[in-house]
Amino acid sequence: MLLGIKRIYEKAEVTDGKRILVDGLWPRGVRRSTANIDKWVKEVAPSKELRQWFSHDPAKWKSFESKYKKELESNKTLDSIVELAIKEDITLVYGSKDTERNNAVVLEEVLKERIDEIANKGGG
Fold first, then answer.
1. Could you give the C-alpha distances from 18 to 50, 51, 86, in angstroms and in order?
2. Residue 89 pLDDT > 90, yes or no?
3. Bridge partners of 94?
4. Residues 26-29: contacts with CB within 8 Å, 24+ apart?
């Protein structure tokens, strides 16, 4: 199992495994027919209110990260991504220009924590 993140504007690679778009909005300038996306999971994206509040302002990053993690706590769709990530390689795909401060970075961290919890419960 490998779990990674990648901008949608980067070339898709065979090593990406299943490519899951995790943004609430389709990325600008990208055709759906050529995006190489296996699944679009809008349900794990930050809420519209949180996304608009954050507005990719680096000064708001820590607060965004905390608020987004709070939103993810009760997100049932996250479980399906965890199950998939345990079985096969996946790449979380996002559209943000900022490669260090975006929802996919937070989501990757949360998913890895959940996967570790499952592995430890199962004797991992």
1. 27, 25, 12
2. yes
3. 7
4. 27/94, 27/95, 28/95
